[in-house]
Structure formats: structure tokens, C-alpha cells
């Protein structure tokens, strides 16, 4: 007997499942507030070299002091990373005569002065992560995603070994602790270490929340549950814009986005362990208890007769125990058999492309002509209709076609903005918002799709592996912005090419629409 048949007996989508999904959506809100926090945590405001002995120019205005001290760009703005070795007083007579002798221009010698009109402080202003140190600023996001990458491997294995709920609780507690330690950082090194550990912990939340909810839901409501859970990611996106707008000091911003983890820890008390996982691991009595609770909450009193439950449970246990008896499973098991090997390689490529393009767009808030807070909010808003449309498409067109075309169209939108002239800010903004919608559609689909591709005995290992590959994409995405020194449009061309290529790989995956969740490797092969 399949577990889905058991779900039909106890109610595959009733009050019990709705309660679980709602509670699991709380930590889901918190995820984007950390994953996209780099946009505000490490924002670099306008800055210029600090000018020594400025009191000697008391009879000059600030604009005139800058004019004789800081060289200008061709567009008339003052350079951020260079200054004159000696004041150029002749520029007061004719400011258009910029010196052609580069020998009198040098890098900033006395630090920087920042515009604090938008941010009270960021890690860029705290530790001068600008100019030659700009790479360290971008690396902050990379270190965070390296932590998320490591966490995907660790929690993917641990949640299959020790259960979904216990590992979710551990990851939430660690997220709270390391998040608060990040806020208390007194050096760049301390921030990098604590943000990396926060990434490890949050990876467990990201990895476990969706499968734990999905394993309690029947086939008919599986897509709806996946989309519903992902909508709360978009809500977190919008909340991040509002929180960042209200809290302009980076220490308190970290406290504000980490605090909600405490609420999630408390609410997790009411979430049961996955009965599917308990049965697969031979813990029949615990599964029996949770199934009875589910049946009672869903009004299926006829199921509450103990003898009937045991009769129903026993065939399921025998079936899965037989599968499990063949040997323990690990990440290597994902590549042992032909069909699983193909699924793992292709889904890994798709996850890399989805994450790489998504974070590439999400971390370029100032590149489309909108205020960064408004961009963050609009990017969050557009994700909700994108999810609604995908809810229809994945059930009508299928998972495979939806996944492939959503990612390909993301790449094409990014590529279009390379061609569209920068003065056309309105058109660039519209194309960027469309691209963000397609990107979120691809991300929404890949979570649902992957959880259906792998069997129960390997599902968390599969999700851990694909999350690992995705976080590699997320870790590389912010570093790609540094390629603008080679060619200004090279980052966008890179995002476009990767998205289109990885989207095409999705056509090689099998369709899972209206199919039962596979229990063992035999169901896949």
C-alpha cells in the first residue's frame, strides 16, 4: 500500500495540513530577509577621498574644496577612489580644464568621506570596503552562500538520518544565535565568520521546510502547497524592503531580520515529524500517533480505530522497510543508477542556473533606474503573480516545460537589458521586472519539481545535493559583478548565457505531473 493511499484515509488536505503549512511558512518569510540582506547590509553610498587639512580652506565652499582636491569623471561627477596630490587652485577659475597629467593623481591616502543621507552606516562605511577593497564587500555575500552551500550538504544528510523536525529546530536555533552574533561583530573577520555560520544554519531551514510540508499533503494539493509556501518567500522580500527602509544602521538591521527566528522556534512545537519519514525508518508507533492526530483534526473519526490503523500501516511499513533493507543511502546513491544519475546531473544544472540568475538580478537593485527600496519591494510584488501563473501552468503544461521556459525567458530578459540603451530607464525597469518574475517562476517550479523527482529514501539527499549546487550559483553571482572592470556588460551577458543554457537542460528531465511521489529507487528506475 502506498503512503498516498494512507493520506486519503486520514484526509490529504484538511485542517491538520493547513496548520502545518501555515507554521512552516513563518521561517520561510525569514529566509529572503537574510539571503538578500547583502543589498542593504553592504550597500556602498556615494563617497570620495577624505581631504586632509580641510580647515586651511575655510574661505571656500565644500563644492570648491572638492573641485580643487578631487578629479572628475567625464560626466562631471567626482571620482570615488582618487584625489590630487596637491590642491589644483587653477580649477576655481575654469573647472572644465581637468589636468591631463596623471602623475598628480593618486589613490585615497586618508580614508573616505561617505554620504550618510540614505544609510546611517553599512559594513562598507564601517570598514572602508570600497575601491581596492570592493572585492571584500562582494565577498561578504559569497561567504554567506558558501555557508549555505555547506549547510545544504550537512542538513540534507542529517534530516534523512535524524528526521525533518529535529533538524529544522536545530537550524532555526543556530540561525538565531549566529544572526545575533553577526549583529555584534566588531571586525570584518568576525562578521564574515558569523555570516558564513548563519548561512549554514539557514540552509537547513530552506532545505527542510518544503519537503516536511509536502510529505503530509496528498497528490492533488501538492502543487498548491508548494506555491503557497513559496508565496511567503515573496512576502519576506517585500518585508525586507520595508525593514531596511526603517532601519538604516547595519547592526540593528541584522537584529531586525534575525529576531523572527525566535517566533518560528516557538511555533515549531505544533509541527509533527513527517509520518512518511517515520514509516520509512521503521518508527511505526510514532507515525501511528501522528496519523491519528491528523485524522482527528481532519474529522476522519472512522480512521481512529487502532486496529484499522495498524492494518493500514503494516503494508506500507513492509514495502518501505524492504526498500530500506537493501542498504543505507547517501549522496553517492544519487549517481549509482542510470535514471537517478541523469536526474541528478540535469537537476543540478537547472538549480545552478536558477540560483545564479535569480541572485544576479536580485543583487542589482540600482541597475534599472529605480530607488533600491522600491526595486526590492517591486521585485517582491511581481513574484506573487508569477507564482499564481506557475500554479496554473505546472498543472496544465507540466513541470518540465514550465521549468525550462521560465529559466530561458529569464535569461532573455537579462540579455535584452544589455541591448536597451541606459537612458530608456522606464523600458529597462519593465524588462527587469518581467525578468524577475520569470526568475521567481523558475525558482518556485524547481523546488516543487525536484521534491517530486527523488524517492522518499533519497529525497532530502537529493534536495541537499541540488541546494548545494544552487548555492554555488548563489555564491558566484555577486562576484560576477566584478567583471564589469573587463567589460561593463559582461556580468549581464554571463547571467543571460548561463540561464538560457541551464533552462535548455530542463527538457531532459522526466515529467512528474499527476504522478505519485516515488518511495524507493525501484520506483524511479
Description:
Keywords: Cell membrane, Ion transport, Membrane, Transmembrane, Transmembrane helix, Transport. It catalyses: GDP(in) = GDP(out); 3',5'-cyclic AMP(in) = 3',5'-cyclic AMP(out); 2-oxoglutarate(in) = 2-oxoglutarate(out); prostaglandin E2(out) = prostaglandin E2(in). It is found in: Apical cell membrane; Basolateral cell membrane. With 525 residues, the protein is mostly helical. The protein folds into 3 domains: 1-35 and 125-326, MFS general substrate transporter like domains (Growth Hormone, Chain: A, Up-down Bundle); 47-114, no CATH class; 331-524, Up-down Bundle (Growth Hormone, Chain: A). 66% of the residues lie in helices and 2% in strands. It has helices at 3-10, 15-35, 38-41, 62-69, 123-127, 134-162, 164-183, 188-214, 222-246, 250-258, 260-267, 275-280, 284-297, 306-324, 338-362, 372-396, 399-419, 425-453, 459-480, 490-505, 521-524, and strands at 47-49, 82-84, 105-107, 112-114. Helix 15 (338-362) packs parallel to helix 19 (459-480), helix 16 runs antiparallel to helix 17 and helix 16 (372-396) packs across helix 18. The two termini are 19 Å apart.
Q: What's the CATH C level of the largest domain?
A: Mainly Alpha
Number of helices: 21
Binned strand content: under 5%
Q: Low-confidence parts, pLDDT < 50 over ≥5 residues?
A: 305-309, 311-326
Number of domains: 3
Q: Name the helicity range.
A: 55-70%
CATH domain topology of the largest domain: Growth Hormone, Chain: A
Mean pLDDT: 86
Write down the secondary-structure element order: HHHEHEEEHHHHHHHHHHHHHHHHH
Q: What do we call the CATH homologous superfamily of the largest domain? A: MFS general substrate transporter like domains
Task: Please count the beta strands (DSSP E, at least 2 residues each).
Answer: 4
Q: What structural class should be given to the helix and strand makeup?
A: mainly alpha
Shape: elongated
From the structure provided, what is the oligomeric state, counting identical versus distinct chains? single chain
Secondary-structure arrangement, i.e. CATH architecture of the largest domain: Up-down Bundle
Main-sheet strand order equals 1-4
Task: Quote the distance from N terminus to C terminus.
Answer: 19 Å
Domain Major facilitator superfamily (MFS) profile: 87-513
Main location: membrane
GO molecular function: organic anion transmembrane transporter activity; prostaglandin transmembrane transporter activity
Membrane topology: Multi-pass membrane protein
Amino acid at each position: 500500500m502506498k503512503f498516498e493511499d494512507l493520506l486519503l484515509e486520514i484526509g490529504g488536505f484538511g485542517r491538520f495540513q493547513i496548520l502545518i503549512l501555515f507554521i512552516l511558512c513563518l521561517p520561510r518569510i525569514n529566509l529572503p530577509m537574510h539571503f538578500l540582506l547583502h543589498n542593504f547590509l553592504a550597500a556602498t553610498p556615494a563617497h570620495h577621498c577624505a581631504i586632509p587639512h580641510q580647515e586651511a580652506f575655510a574661505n571656500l565652499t565644500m563644492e570648491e574644496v572638492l573641485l580643487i582636491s578631487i578629479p572628475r569623471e567625464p560626466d562631471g561627477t567626482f571620482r570615488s577612489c582618487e584625489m590630487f596630490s596637491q590642491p589644483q587652485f587653477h580649477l576655481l577659475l575654469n573647472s572644465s580644464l581637468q589636468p591631463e597629467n596623471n602623475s598628480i593623481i593618486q589613490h585615497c591616502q586618508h580614508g573616505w568621506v561617505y554620504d550618510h543621507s540614505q544609510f546611517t552606516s553599512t559594513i562598507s562605511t564601517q570598514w572602508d570596503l570600497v575601491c581596492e577593497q570592493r572585492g571584500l564587500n562582494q565577498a561578504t555575500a559569497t561567504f554567506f552562500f558558501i555557508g549555505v552551500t555547506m549547510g545544504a550538504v550537512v542538513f540534507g544528510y542529517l534530516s534523512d538520518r535524524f528526521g525533518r523536525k529535529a533538524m529544522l529546530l536545530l537550524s532555526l536555533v543556530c540561525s538565531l544565535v549566529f544572526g545575533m552574533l553577526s549583529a555584534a561583530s566588531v571586525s570584518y573577520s568576525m562578521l564574515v565568520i558569523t555570516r558564513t555560520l548563519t548561512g549554514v544554519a539557514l540552509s537547513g531551514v530552506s532545505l527542510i521546510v518544503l519537503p516536511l510540508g509536502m510529505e503530509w499533503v496528498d497528490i492533488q494539493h501538492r502543487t498548491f502547497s508548494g506555491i503557497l509556501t513559496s508565496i511567503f518567500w515573496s512576502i519576506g522580500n517585500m518585508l525586507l524592503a520595508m525593514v531596511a527602509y526603517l532601519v538604516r544602521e547595519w547592526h540593528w538591521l541584522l537584529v531586525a531580520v534575525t529576531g523572527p527566528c525566535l517566533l518560528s522556534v516557538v511555533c515549531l512545537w505544533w509541527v509533527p515529524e513527517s509520518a512518511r519519514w517515520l514509516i520509512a525508518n521503521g518508527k511505526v508507533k510514532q507515525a501511528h500517533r501522528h496519523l491519528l492526530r491528523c485524522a482527528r483534526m481532519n474529522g476522519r473519526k472512522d480512521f481512529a480505530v487502532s486496529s484499522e490503523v495498524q492494518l493500514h500501516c503494516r503494508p506500507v511499513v513492509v514495502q518501505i522497510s524492504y526498500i530500506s533493507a537493501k542498504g543505507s543511502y547517501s549522496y553517492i546513491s544519487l549517481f549509482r543508477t542510470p535514471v537517478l544519475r541523469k536526474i541528478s546531473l540535469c537537476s543540478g544544472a537547472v538549480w545552478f542556473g536558477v540560483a545564479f540568475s535569480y541572485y544576479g538580478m536580485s543583487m542589482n537593485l540600482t541597475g534599472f533606474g529605480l530607488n533600491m527600496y522600491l526595486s526590492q519591494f517591486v521585485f517582491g510584488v511581481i513574484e506573487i503573480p508569477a507564482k499564481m501563473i506557475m500554479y496554473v501552468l505546472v498543472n496544465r503544461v507540466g513541470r518540465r516545460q514550465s521549468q525550462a521556459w521560465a529559466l530561458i525567458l529569464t535569461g532573455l530578459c537579462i540579455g535584452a537589458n544589455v541591448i536597451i540603451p541606459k537612458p530608456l530607464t522606464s523600458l529597462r525597469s519593465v524588462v527587469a521586472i518581467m525578468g524577475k518574475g520569470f526568475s521567481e517562476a523558475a525558482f518556485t517550479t524547481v523546488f516543487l519539481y525536484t521534491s517530486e523527482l527523488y524517492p522518499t529514501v533519497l529525497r532530502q539527499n537529493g534536495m541537499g545535493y541540488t541546494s548545494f549546487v544552487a548555492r554555488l550559483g548563489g555564491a558566484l553571482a555577486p562576484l560576477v559583478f566584478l567583471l564589469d572592470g573587463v567589460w561593463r556588460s559582461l556580468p549581464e551577458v554571463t547571467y543571460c548565457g548561463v540561464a538560457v543554457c541551464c533552462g535548455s537542460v530542463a527538457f531532459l528531465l522526466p515529467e512528474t505531473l499527476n504522478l505519485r511521489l516515488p518511495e524507493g529507487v525501484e520506483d524511479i528506475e
